[in-house]
């Protein structure tokens, strides 16, 4: 019975499919998923006696039990499943995934297909929008500004609302959140265009963060590739798969700068640097939106979370943010600015406050800065329940005042809650707000509905035939594997890697040895049970059961009876040990902040026992944030940071472990020695009492008594199986005027025996000015490929714009004076030169 099984069931008139995956790894494991919407059920232990299977578990989001009893006969099975919200179901099924539920939709949607629909001009769209606005009542308009969930499922507190079908038919919603089922999209869109007052089609919104059905490495991982084209391609594939299922509006990318690894949502961003973060923001927008939003294989990108959400105090999600205007603009604003210049159609507010005002109600941030200064003219959408939270923060006395503040801040769409519908008519009647403010919001929403073509062809994104072709296809899986390889960072290696596939015995030990929990948070794939495990990857490379000894040892945060004994027995028989440790996917992401960012204690205990055997040991990490690895750095032979690597994780990791791919990833977040150093980031200020090699022994300077100031692994760090040397930088001039550029060159040589990729990094320091500047700021990088013994000259051109920063007089400029320029493989190991900027 090992393998994948399926059963179809009709509940309340809708057909859904249950998928069961049975595996063996220190006992039997059962994973359950469902189509068309995910089941969100945690993997569970299973008891098998003969042809009978029994298992008990729970869902990700509720404590309600999940109970499974199945009886197998040949290639069929029958039994009962008790699920949250559904109760006990009698089921019968067969081996395999079964036929796609989308097949039945193909003939249903065909009569609604339109041909000869062309992209409208901007002038034509403006004219049509005004005609429609003139016909709409006030309530019709507010309906376009309101969003409903596709189901009763909630990502936060419960939301009071009427049934979605009723809201759509009455024109009380303009967009739908979380319709992962293409049949549900078709059903609700039919109601909108056949029953609502003006037959206005719906937008369908979803969080497509790092893949739809084919899952790519989490964004923090793919940022470590420093490969903008590969990231853009991943987003384009994600859009292609999601658009085929009816999604038109993405709640991504997240472009928050993140300096505190305790914050769970670091997993969704590009790390701590605003320059690299801005370039990755552009790549993601261009990937999701393509060349033209009228292309029905693209989706609207939404930049989130505007702004400074990643600066939450204590790394605790939804917590207070208190930063200066200079930090806001120099650190947190660049990715949003770049994403807006790339054409992002939407922006989502952050949950936090800025200058004591919740962002959702801040006219300064959302209107003055975002719209007026940055020129954003797209849709502004609230985060989940954020308008209601203006009142909870204490910035409004009630929901009515919260709705007023959000509208005055130019918030166009209220996600899920119903304050706009409840209070805006009353506020207009009282003369507190004007209908023209509502018209502006609706104008923006309708404009995008015309831009993506649904006003002329409402069902153009309902593409079941493309869904069957695109989802989890071979080309997409290969792209995921390629990006996963590029995202893996080799943190330590004393020569034990790459592993030699020459008959030696490998003990693969740890909770991630054979785990499929390699996708990470914020993904809703129906193919999770086909994730390639690390064990799968090694078996595919020819490691037989005699040469690959597998033992979990422990759970992610729990002991397994007899687990340590089995792990130690396997390690004792092996020539080399691969320790597969880390965080499960629930330990990262939204509402997953951690005060302690070490590996769970039971995993450390397992590692200590294994290391005590004295065998060569490789630590392979699965995680969504920088972790405290000080002990491991001192005691294991190699450390491989794989993050959550996606659908092809096991193959990609194995490619790196065996040297079939020379690791090239470089960190985009610093790894601290100790949690007490957090937040830690390379582009910090110098302080008035900086620690130097000369004064490190003295007391009265800015340092810890029990830890170095520097991180364990700095920003930009990563090793390969080769080695490179840098010469001193050569400048073409030492003095540059504002109208000139300066060229800085360095020779980079591969002194190893293997071809490698090197990410050459350029940093700048402004030595003095009217405000202090960081000790280093990334201003450029080049990825180069070097054959053994090859030398390449890498040249960077520095211009005045590279030296600019925000000043307290609200200007953004470079000040004349002395600068240092650094070039090297990471923020710590650099060669330097000096130059001067003159007026």
Structural summary, described in words:
The protein is an alpha/beta fold and 839 residues long. The protein is 26% helix and 23% strand. The protein has 22 helices and 34 strands. The strands form eight sheets. Strands 1-2-3-4-5-6-7-8 form an eight-stranded antiparallel barrel. It has a six-stranded mixed sheet with strand order 18-23-22-21-19-20, with helices on both faces. Strands 26-34-33-28-29 form a five-stranded mixed sheet. Helix 2 packs across helix 15 (435-451). The model has no long low-confidence stretch (mean pLDDT 96).
Quick summary:
The chain has 839 residues and is of the alpha/beta class. The chain is 26% helix and 23% strand.
List the helices and strands and how they pair.
Elements: E1 3-11, E2 14-24, E3 28-35, E4 44-49, E5 52-58, E6 65-73, E7 76-83, E8 87-95, H1 105-109, H2 122-135, H3 138-144, E9 147-149, H4 164-169, E10 175-177, H5 182-195, E11 203-206, H6 219-223, H7 228-244, E12 249-250, H8 274-289, E13 302-306, H9 325-332, H10 334-341, E14 346-349, E15 353-354, E16 357-358, H11 363-373, E17 379-381, H12 386-393, H13 399-408, H14 419-429, H15 435-451, H16 464-470, H17 474-487, E18 489-493, E19 506-509, H18 534-540, E20 548-551, H19 563-573, E21 576-582, H20 601-611, E22 617-622, H21 630-635, E23 638-641, H22 649-657, E24 724-726, E25 730-731, E26 735-737, E27 742-750, E28 756-766, E29 777-786, E30 791-798, E31 805-806, E32 812-813, E33 817-824, E34 831-838
Parallel strand pairs: 9-10, 10-11, 11-12, 13-14, 14-17, 19-20, 19-21, 21-22, 22-23, 26-34
Antiparallel strand pairs: 1-2, 1-8, 2-3, 3-4, 4-5, 5-6, 6-7, 7-8, 15-16, 18-23, 24-27, 25-27, 27-30, 28-29, 28-33, 31-32, 33-34
């Amino acid at each position: 019975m090992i393998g994948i099984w399926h059963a179809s069931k009709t509940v309340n008139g809708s057909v859904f499919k249950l998928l069961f995956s049975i595996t063996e790894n220190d006992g039997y494991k059962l994973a359950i998923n469902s189509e068309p919407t995910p089941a969100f059920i945690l993997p569970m232990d299973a008891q098998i006696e003969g042809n009978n299977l029994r298992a008990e578990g729970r869902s990700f989001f509720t404590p309600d039990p999940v109970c499974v009893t199945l009886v197998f006969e040949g290639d069929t099975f029958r039994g009962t499943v008790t699920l949250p919200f559904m109760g006990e179901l009698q089921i019968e099924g067969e081996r395999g995934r079964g036929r796609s539920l989308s097949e039945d939709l193909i003939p249903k949607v065909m009569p609604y297909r339109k041909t000869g629909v062309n992209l409208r001009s901007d002038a034509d769209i403006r004219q049509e929008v005004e005609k429609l606005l003139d016909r709409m009542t006030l309530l019709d308009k507010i309906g376009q500004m309101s969003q409903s969930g596709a189901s009763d499922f909630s990502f936060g507190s419960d939301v009071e609302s009427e049934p979605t079908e009723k809201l759509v038919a009455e024109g009380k919603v303009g967009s739908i959140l979380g319709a992962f089922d293409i049949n549900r999209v078709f059903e609700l869109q039919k109601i909108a265009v056949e029953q609502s007052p003006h037959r206005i089609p719906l937008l369908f919104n979803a969080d497509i963060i790092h893949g739809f059905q084919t899952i790519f490495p989490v964004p923090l991982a793919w940022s470590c590739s420093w490969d903008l084209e590969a990231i853009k391609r991943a987003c384009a594939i994600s859009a292609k798969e999601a658009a085929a299922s009816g999604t038109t509006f993405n709640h991504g990318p997240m472009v928050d700068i993140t300096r505190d690894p305790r914050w769970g949502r670091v997993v969704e961003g590009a790390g701590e640097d605003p320059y690299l973060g801005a370039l990755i923001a552009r790549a993601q927008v261009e990937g999701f939106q393509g060349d033209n939003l009228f292309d029905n294989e693209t989706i609207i990108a939404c930049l989130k979370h505007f702004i400074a959400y990643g600066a939450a105090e204590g790394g605790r999600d939804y917590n207070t943010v208190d930063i200066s205007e200079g930090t806001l603009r120099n650190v947190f604003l660049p990715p949003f600015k770049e994403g807006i210049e790339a054409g992002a159609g939407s922006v989502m507010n952050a949950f936090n406050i800025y200058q004591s005002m919740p962002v959702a109600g801040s006219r300064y941030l959302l209107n003055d800065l975002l719209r007026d200064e940055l020129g954003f003219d797209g849709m502004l959408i609230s985060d989940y329940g954020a308008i209601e939270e203006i009142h909870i923060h204490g910035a409004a006395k009630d929901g009515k005042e919260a709705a007023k503040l959000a509208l005055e801040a130019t918030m166009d769409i209220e996600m899920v809650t119903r304050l706009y519908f409840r209070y805006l008519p009353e506020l207009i009647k009282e003369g507190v707000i004007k209908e023209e403010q509502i018209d502006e919001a609706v104008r923006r929403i309708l404009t995008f509905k015309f831009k993506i073509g649904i006003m002329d062809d409402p069902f153009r994104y309902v593409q079941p035939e493309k869904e069957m072709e695109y989802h989890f296809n071979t080309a997409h899986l290969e792209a995921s594997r390629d990006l996963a390889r590029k995202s893996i960072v080799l943190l330590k290696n004393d020569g034990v890697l790459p592993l030699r596939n020459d008959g030696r015995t490998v003990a693969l030990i740890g909770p991630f040895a054979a785990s499929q929990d390699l996708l990470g948070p914020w993904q809703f794939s129906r193919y999770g049970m086909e994730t390639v495990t690390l064990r799968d990857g090694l078996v595919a490379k020819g490691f037989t059961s005699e040469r690959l000894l597998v033992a979990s040892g422990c759970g992610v945060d729990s002991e397994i009876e007899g687990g340590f004994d089995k792990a130690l027995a396997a390690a004792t028989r092996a020539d080399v040990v691969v320790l597969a440790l880390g965080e499960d996917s629930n330990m990262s992401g939204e509402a997953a902040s951690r005060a302690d960012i070490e590996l769970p204690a039971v995993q450390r205990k397992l590692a200590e026992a294994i290391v005590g055997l004295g065998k060569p040991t490789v630590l392979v990490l699965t995680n969504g944030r920088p972790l405290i690895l000080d002990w491991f750095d001192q005691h294991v032979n190699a450390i491989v940071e794989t993050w959550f690597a996606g659908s092809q994780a096991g193959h990609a990791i194995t490619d790196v472990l065996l040297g079939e791919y020379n690791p090239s990833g470089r960190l985009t977040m610093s790894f601290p020695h100790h949690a007490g150093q957090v937040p830690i980031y390379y582009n910090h200020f110098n302080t008035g009492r900086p620690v130097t090699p000369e004064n490190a022994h003295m007391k009265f300077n800015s340092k810890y008594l029990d830890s170095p100031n520097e991180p364990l692994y700095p920003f930009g760090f990563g090793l390969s199986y080769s080695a490179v040397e840098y010469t001193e930088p050569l400048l073409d001039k030492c003095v540059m005027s504002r109208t000139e550029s300066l060229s800085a060159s360095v020779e980079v040589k591969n002194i190893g025996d293997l071809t490698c990729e090197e990410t050459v990094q350029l940093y700048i320091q402004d030595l003095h000015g009217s405000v202090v500047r960081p000790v280093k700021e990334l201003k450029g990088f080049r990825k180069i490929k070097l054959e053994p013994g090859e030398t390449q000259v890498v040249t960077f051109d520095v211009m005045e714009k590279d030296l600019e920063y925000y000043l307290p007089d609200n200007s953004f400029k470079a000040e004349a004076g002395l600068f240092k320029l650094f070039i090297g493989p990471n923020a710590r190991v650099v060669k330097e030169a000096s130059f001067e900027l003159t007026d």
